[in-house]
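Weekly sync, protein design subgroup
Attendees: M.S., D.O., the rotation student, P.L. (late)

Item 1: inverse folding check
M.S. brought a backbone from last month's batch and wanted to see whether the design step gives back something sensible before we order anything. D.O. pointed out we never logged the input encoding, so this time it goes straight into the notes. Structure tokens as presented (97 positions):
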């Protein structure tokens, strides 16, 4: 399951979701435009597991889009993110927005 991240996201809710998914047997991965860490508006920085370039959308069974205006604006400005979301949609994958 891909969890998209960018600076300014709601980090606490995304980390809590990833923890819950892991407990339930899923394999969530934090995905962003680049490797490194993102700084959410709340909580500690979150380490990115994989970049959009290295992990095409078809590798994931579902997608989680972040909360946070700054994160949404940053992801919206990157064509790779839009392509990733479009591919998830076209492959009829669940999207949590």
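Designed sequence read out in the meeting:
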């Amino acid at each position: 399951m891909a969890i998209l991240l960018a600076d300014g996201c709601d980090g606490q809710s995304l980390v809590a979701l990833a923890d819950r998914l892991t407990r339930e047997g899923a394999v969530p991965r934090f995905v962003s435009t680049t490797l490194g860490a993102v700084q959410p508006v709340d909580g500690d920085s979150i380490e990115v597991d994989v970049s959009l370039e290295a992990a095409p959308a078809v590798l994931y069974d579902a997608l989680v889009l972040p909360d946070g205006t700054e994160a949404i604006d940053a992801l919206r400005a990157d064509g790779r993110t839009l392509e990733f979301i479009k591919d998830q949609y076209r492959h009829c994958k669940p999207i949590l927005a």
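Discussion: The mean pLDDT is 95. The longest strand covers residues 29-32.
Action: P.L. to compare against the previous round before Friday.
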